[in-house]
Specification:
Radius of gyration: 23 Å
CATH class of the largest domain: Alpha Beta
Distance between the termini: 46 Å
Oligomer: single chain
Order of helices and strands: HEHHHEEHHHHHHEEEEHEEHEH
Strand content: 5-15%
Number of domains: 2
Number of strands: 10
Structural class: alpha/beta
Strand order of the largest sheet: 4-5-6-8-10
Helix content: 40-55%
CATH topology of the largest domain: Trna Endonuclease, Chain: A, domain 1
Largest sheet: 5 strands, mixed
Length: about 300
Amino acid sequence: MAIPKWHEFMAPVLRVLTDGEVRRRRELYEMVELEVALDDEQRSELLSSGQRKHENRIGWATSYLNRVGALDRPARGQYVITDVGRTLLADHPGGVTEKHLRALAGDESAPHTWYALKMREQGAMDPAEQADLDPVEQIQEGVDRISSEVASELLSRLHGQEPTFFEQAVLNLLMRMGYGGADGAATRTQLSHDGGIDGIIDQDALGLSRVHVQAKRYGLDQVVQRPDVQGFVGALAGSQANQGVFITTGRFSAGARDYAASVPTRVVLIDGARLANLMIKYGVGVQVERTVEIVKVDEDFFE
């Protein structure tokens, strides 16, 4: 008997958590195994990476449920159902699908609106659409979905750290992107009286031009408004700086973006979605788990 698909584990995950207790990952997985009545053969089936297949699928189910606010993670490796999760299960007792999650994420009043935006940006495919892709396109689709999951996790982890950790992570990212001058160094300002500037980093090898940085660890759904950007521009003027980067885990309002584009000072705004993508691209806070090689016939060999 085939192991349930990853989305078929979502309803069982919600059902075993309906008692409201906080469950650790290992305990939750064991309860779900019993809920869906996996046999020994199904439990022992492995992926090529060595991970148990059903645990990988349960992991994806819990991750997506968390991203739409159906599950909460009060601490690392712990899960508890939310009111959103109870409603989701009550509305779809026969099974929860990714289509149901997309419908939930499409509601701007729903929690985790950053994930809602990502779902719309990516235009997540239905299984029928995926079947029309060639094998290489399917691999790319899978990689994109994994990257989206990692991006969401990165923002959650950054938001759970102290502000000083976030500020240093931002400077590390900018240095990995090639800033920092010949010595590859950046300066994080003092915790107080920093004038609205959290870091200073050289833009060129000689340090003739510097970029001032503001890094604000806001809620993932919090919107940074125009006055916040105005304050940063004022801080740049006070430091006699003509360029700066405002980076946040939240989002910028249209007014904030319009203001940044209208002032003579060069101000770059990086929201949570772009920040997470840059961290993945430049390898900050992530590591390569596996490399996939795609082969084709060597025509030269047969000539």
